[in-house]
């Protein structure tokens, strides 16, 4: 919280995210002006107006309601994906850096293999082989980001385990897991928090790219990427069908990036004391 | 000293080979995890009409009745002898497809990187020349935009605007390779390269800015200035020269990403690159194409990273000496 107050970027980012989160929460409770998937052919291609804030699409669906529900879907997938990646990656990094030896070798090997794929290609291939629903998309994205969290935590853990108070904890006979969770983990939380914020923005972009390519959440569930895909051919008939989801996806990612950058500048010990 | 360096290189190469083996296992297992089997996937609804005997014959023909380990090593052995499998839809071997698509992606990646460097490095230097000033804010805004605007959105918008308002849609006609028709080829590459270059310019800009700021704080820069080195020469030779290592590393990394990450842009602009080959393979359920192409991309990605690593050791005298 203090970190947020010290960084105008992080503050601006959180403000944008708060608004979008509010809309997404309303959408998840069904508090939208229209049903996002209900078709109404007579009302197709209506320009933005009081009745339809962002106009309607080729099936007469309300674009505002679809965008709002789409933000909710994208955010859900991104949050679940990053949560998985954080949990597994942090655990992997802790074990790898603290136990060293064969565990480190094995985890390092897996990390190297996953790092050998361009991230979007890996997410794409995984999404293609998994049975497609929002959860498997989240799992596919999570697998891509696990190695990043492993690498980000392993380094600091390696240096922490040489520090006196950790050695003292070892000497008092605490178990390795106790030491890792009670003495090492709290000291790397700021690094993890920064990584979470930055990863969320990538996860949103990845999810949007997948659904743009037709490998994301299956239709008719609204998703920002697939809305933009459908709007490609409608740009001149109904530009609002492209502009609304496009602007919202950019806003969402800008918000996450501002928050991530702000947190990195204030929280990351490597940046502390100097402006980067 | 030399032996140490050589040892390190040998270890790095051995590690890379191990990683590549792991990649092959991963790709193989991933594609075996597909719900249903390849025969059903390949034939679609027609698969239901197969008699058990026909199905068994097909399984035997494709080697699917062999143990998984045998299948894996036979695939890997085939890859080594240049047999990447066959694409029934294209009536071409996957090797032929790859020989056509890889250079296209490579060209696109090179053009994008050149554009990204032309945007990112000067803007990064300008940004760093007065941190916190309005010009820095401009640089930061450009990099934020590059990081936040999805490539597919920028590509879709650019394509619509250029086609409708300027009648410029070279990608509407069949793709021409650089050798067939260089002029048309470059026209077809310019928009995709701009989209990708803009996105990659952001991390390059940020890296340049951070590296320049870091280098400038060193004493040798002050000494050079006190010695009367002209400002322009100081900025280029002393500051940028020393900031080159992180910039090269970031550029190499981004180049690697482009080899598979250009898939969305290739798809939108109908550029027949290797990313699009994977996507088409997925859409047409031709898993032999997907399996071998993904492995080729991973191999290229790993090689680019290895080269970047070597290059960085060559540029940085500190790494060379230690």
From TrEMBL, chain A:
The chain crosses the membrane at residues 75-99, 106-128, 134-152, 184-205, 237-260. Keywords: Cell membrane, Membrane, Transmembrane, Transmembrane helix, Transport. It is found in: Cell membrane. GO terms for cellular component: plasma membrane. It is a multi-pass membrane protein. Residues 71-260 form the ABC transmembrane type-1 domain. Its main location: membrane. It comes from the Bacteria. One of its GO terms (biological process) is transmembrane transport. Gene3D superfamilies: MetI-like. Belongs to the binding-protein-dependent transport system permease family. This is ABC transporter permease. It comes from Nonomuraea turkmeniaca.
Automatic annotation (TrEMBL), chain B:
It comes from the Bacteria. CDD domains: TM_PBP2. It is found in: Cell membrane. Keywords: Cell membrane, Membrane, Transmembrane, Transmembrane helix, Transport. It is a multi-pass membrane protein. One of its GO terms (molecular function) is dipeptide transmembrane transporter activity. Its main location: membrane. Belongs to the binding-protein-dependent transport system permease family. This is ABC transporter permease.
